[in-house]
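Hi support team,

I'm opening this ticket because the web form for multi-chain structure prediction keeps timing out on my end. I have pasted the exact lines I submitted so you can reproduce it. The total is 218 residues across four entries, so I didn't expect it to be a heavy job. Is there a limit I'm missing, or should I split the entries? Thanks in advance, R.K.
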Amino acid sequence: MAINKKQSFGKKEQDLAECAKALAHPARIAILKVLAQHNKCICGEIVSVLPLAQSTVSQHLKELKNAGLITGTVDGPRSCYCINWKAFEKFNREFSFLFNHLKTEQACC
Amino acid sequence: MAINKKQSFGKKEQDLAECAKALAHPARIAILKVLAQHNKCICGEIVSVLPLAQSTVSQHLKELKNAGLITGTVDGPRSCYCINWKAFEKFNREFSFLFNHLKTEQACC
DNA sequence: ATCTTATATCGCAAATATACGATTAATAAA
DNA sequence: TTTATTAATCGTATATTTGCGATATAAGAT
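Hello R.K., no limit was hit. The queue was backed up. Here is the completed structure from your submission:
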């Protein structure tokens, strides 16, 4: 694109969009699902479950971490990721807050 | 990318990701916010509020409509968009459902 | 010290998204 | 019928994302 216009929107809009972007790929949804089901540190199991190369999974994990949706600690040759439930709750809260005006009214089209 | 791997994931994951992708831009969040505040059909007002060209806004509206998050009817020289609250509720439901395992437990990292 | 194992990072190619101006389409107004 | 007016679509350039193989890194095992 010619210019990046994202900066011209409010911080809330940018943050929400950023978080949504992290969720905008089935691989990352699948990763989160695995993490949620375990709800404990798991390591290379994610790669074996997903139909993607190790490097690709690592990249997706990095994006989820950057977005704050998961936490991760490196522990030598293996690392450990967990869901950051607080971030999810925040996302849900912000998300609802933005749109919870007049929800009961009927749309006209 | 060489190959599109999105198809190798489940339908639920794909749908959720698709919906998240529609939310993954501050302009579209801003559009939804405006629509939510009005909760009635508004037309060119969106263009005048956003810092984007008319054609760009139209494209964003199209994406939101494709994702099912808004409804739109063309009415001659002006069109009319509304939030599809049902779609939002569904998104919220699916989203929570995917991750509501063991939410109360503490993550380990 | 070398080998193994698990994971991150780099570099690249291909696909998709973003943004705009120009054009088109479709109705209302004159 | 001609002339606005409003919004969709087309064509396009540029930016970003996706995905992989190759390589690097970091610790444990031998």
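A quick check on our side: The longest helix of chain A spans residues 85-99. Let us know if the file doesn't open in your viewer.
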